[in-house]
Amino acid sequence: MADEQPLVWPRGWLRTAAVLLPLMICVALSAGRDTVSNATDVLILVTVIVGAAAAGDRWAGMLAALSSALWFDFFLTSPYLRFTITDPSDVGDTVLLLVIGAVVTELALWGHRQASRASGRAGYLEGALTTAELVLGRHESVETLTRMVSDQLIEVLGIETCRFVTGESHDNRMAVLQHDGSVTRQGHLLNVDRDGLPTDTETVLLVRRNHGVLGHFVLTSASAVARPTGEQRRVAVLLADQVASLLGDRPV
Questions:
Q1: Interior CA angle at 151 toward 143 and 219, to 5°?
Q2: Alpha-carbon span 198 to 174, nearest angstrom
Q3: Per-residue DSSP letters for 209-220?
Q4: pLDDT tens digits for range 16-60
Q5: pTM here?
């Protein structure tokens, strides 16, 4: 059975719902405002805000909070049907809705970012393990393996193209992705986290074995700046190391 995919709402629909749902709930709650406390009303609206924020869209969470605060004021605080609050406790409840909206939305976004990073790490690890299995099994040709690793490097580093070139020599003007994950250009260390990989030249990832160079991957990011993290760059080096163990045993 295929894994079930989470339901993803289009952002426009999500944001529209974030605005309209608090309005509809406040209209419904206003029918029983003499029997239901404002604290209960706030809890119900907080649930709506949490639901909008959980989608990972900052605007949806903030719109839900703003809409909840406005319609809570209009329908559920005295004087009714006016954007005016006279009771200090109602002012506190309205402000609380806005604060909760901001906090919950940022927490939800943080959670989505962490989940995205974890998913990325799992993907990088899977790619490295797949390459290692191919190398150990010796079932694939050198051309097939280097092509597969090139595709994985494109995904891991967020670059445009990648190709493998045999031999020791490469253009010394190119940047070099070092074995420790750093990137240098003509002896100068580049700040990839800030500036990204060079776009005016290609970057090479050397495939080394026993202090010798067997070939190199040529990484191209010309039209868009790629800013792979240190972790992503080290995964790229690990993939190149897997190729090195095969090239050392086979003619290229």
A1: 95
A2: 9
A3: ETTEEEEEEEEE
A4: 998 999 999 999 999 887 788 887 888 888 888 888 877 777 788
A5: 0.52
What is the per-residue pLDDT across 94-127, written as a single tens digit (0 to 9) for each? 887 888 778 877 777 776 666 666 666 556 666 6
Rounded to the nearest 5°, which phi and psi values hold at 158?
70, 30
Q: How far apart are CA 73 and CA 93, in angstroms?
A: 9
Amino acid at site 11: R
Helices 142-157 and 88-137: crossing angle in degrees, nearest 10, is 170
CB 215 within 8 A of CB 252: yes
| Structure-token pair, residue 145 | 């393996």
Q: Let me know: does 235 contact 128? Beta carbons within 8 Å.
A: yes
Q: Which amino acid is at 25?
A: I
**Cβ-proximal residues to 214 (8 Å cutoff; 6+ apart), any chain:** 166, 168, 207, 208, 244, 247, 248, 252
Per the model's pLDDT, the better-predicted residue between 6 and 173 turns out to be: 173
**Greatest C-alpha distance within the chain:** 86
Buried b (16+ CB within 10 A) or exposed e, 88-126: eebeebbeebbebbbebbeebeeeeeeeeeeebeeebee
